[in-house]
Amino acid sequence: MYKSITYILILSCVFLTACSDENTNEYVIKPTAQPLDIPPLFNQLIINPIIPIDNPQTVEGIALGKKLFFDPILSVNNTQACASCHSPRNAFSDTSQFSDGVNGNFGTRNAMPIFNLAWNYDEKFFWDGSVFSLEHQALEPVENPIEMNNTWETVISRLQQHPEYPNLFTNAFGEGIITKEKATKAIAQFERTLISANSKFDKYLLGEVTLTPEETNGLNVFMDETRGDCFHCHGSPNNPLWTDNKFHNNGLDATITDLGLGAVTGDPADNGKFKSPSLRNLAYTAPFMHDGRFQTLEDVINHYSEGLQNSPTIDPLMKKVAQGGVQLSAQDKADLIAFLHTLSDPSFVNNPAFQN
Amino acid sequence: MKKIIAIFIVSCILFSCSEDNDDNLIAPLPQAAITFNFTHNWDGTTINNNNLQTETVINAHGEVMSMTRLRYLISRFELTNENGQTYRFNGYKFTDLSDETTYNFSPENNNIPIGTYTLKFIWGFNETDNIDGAYTDLNSASWNWPAMLGGGYHFMQFDGMYNVNTTAMPYNFHNGTARVSMDVFEQNFAEIVLETPITIINNASIEVKMNIAEFFKNPNTWDLNVLDTPLMPNYDAQKMMQENVLTVFSIGNITQ
């Protein structure tokens, strides 16, 4: 008796479920959810990433975004993709100080690396924070005259006539025409999957490896207010983003010519402020600073140690500006660089899922 | 045996349904929902996200100062009524003066009976709460206090320039656990007790005023020319901040 009831229940469940799925598939194309794979350290230490409610991560959306990211179809003359200036092998940054646009023009800012962007809680993107949200950020380079120099109208037209894209958009976003909003949503989905959390220091925090004495001293220099004092802007073992994603004037110039955040807010108190970049993957992201002025990490450390320039908006955290900087010893400089290299993540730049 | 188990289970269910001790209280006092609204001033001049970076002020020692950044942490809010009954509110308040959305604090468990109360809270975290890396929102805000100084979290980060009328110099007025010597640390939180009676007759927003100037005034007149930066590893500076914070807060308007 019990066996009969059990069989009936099982069979009912199977048939009912199967039928309902079939009906759904017949009428609606529904992309497959693919939530971000949040690294254990991030899960343990920091708050959840920002995923817009109207752009959830899906298998089809991510795949479409990846294809768009690597496709020169976005540029006016079909020569440049996002990846042209955001190279996967360089943690999605550009080894050139300024990137070479489709017409051979150069900008004034160094291409930013792309990783862990879903954890940019304030959602202010670009060096000057001029755009809110990753979806909106992706709109800009396509139409920037010194970058892709295209129009979204042209891009949409090309995508619509393409043999593959219309189906890919339908699979990702359902029926309907292709729009720039859908295109940038897909690109943003792909970009959010670009997660870097497997550096030597991550493994150290997980108890899998040990640091050398030099790296340990470098960490202490980083965390010591009387020496490097890097942690106020660049994270700490408890903030594995290694950036505060805030804007600071870090004493690059006595006379501010590029206003940075100040040009965006219109507030003179913000002049010369640029976003703190993450210190992850420095091994791959040279040159450094918003204008790519420093070729090496040694140059960067020397700047903070002896090269600070005073200006009206300099951040007070550049506390030794009157002496030119924090005056690190040669040993502390070398050890600090050794520590910084433990934040680089070879598995990120070699991840086949992130290559074309 | 089965019967005994069945009786036991039925008994448990019956007992769980019995009245609580407080079910028969006659006419309980009406409840009021409490929120806290923090305002900030420098000896009466309002400081908020609009003028934080533009206002210049003069501290008790006479230095003309500007402010760039002011963030602070308080915890363990408690209201105690005239009968000595204390209502403690969960959570902590992390305030960033550049972000006015952080000025208000609405505890999750914010209902108390109407009555007259006094407010008490902890400046920073006490020893129980100041656990290194334990709070994901504070880690995300880069609010950590270095392990070499005892770990846990900042209580305050106040950055700016002083002597801005002559030769401007940076100050980093950061407060947290005090380091006595290498690997020896001393807790440095402060219990803020505000004696002003707060009469609650309805849902209320309690204004708590922070007079930033008091950090430099009482009981220690702060000389930024001597103590500007670095202050985090400076034991004496840390203990002076702990003393000076006691007069920083006061009760303002009660809106209800």
Automatic annotation (TrEMBL), chain A:
Post-translational modification (record): Binds 2 heme groups per subunit.
Pfam families assigned: CCP_MauG
Name under which the protein is recorded: Cytochrome c peroxidase
Domain Cytochrome c span(s) in chain numbering: 213-344
Signal peptide stretch: 1-20
Residues given in the record as heme c 1 binding sites: 82, 85-86
GO molecular function: cytochrome-c peroxidase activity; electron transfer activity; heme binding; metal ion binding
Cofactor comment text: Binds 2 heme groups.
Keywords attached to this entry: Heme, Iron, Metal-binding, Oxidoreductase, Periplasm, Peroxidase, Signal
Top-level lineage group: Bacteria
Keyword Heme: yes
Gene Ontology cellular component annotations, sorted alphabetically: periplasmic space
Cofactor field: heme
SUPFAM superfamilies with a match to the protein in the record: Cytochrome c (SSF46626)
Binding of heme c 2, residues: 230, 233-234
Subcellular location: Periplasm
Automatic annotation (TrEMBL), chain B:
InterPro entries: MbnP-like_dom
Domain Copper-binding protein MbnP-like, first and last residues per copy: 33-224
Pfam families: MbnP (PF20243)
Protein name per UniProt: Copper-binding protein MbnP-like domain-containing protein
Organism from which the protein derives: Bizionia echini
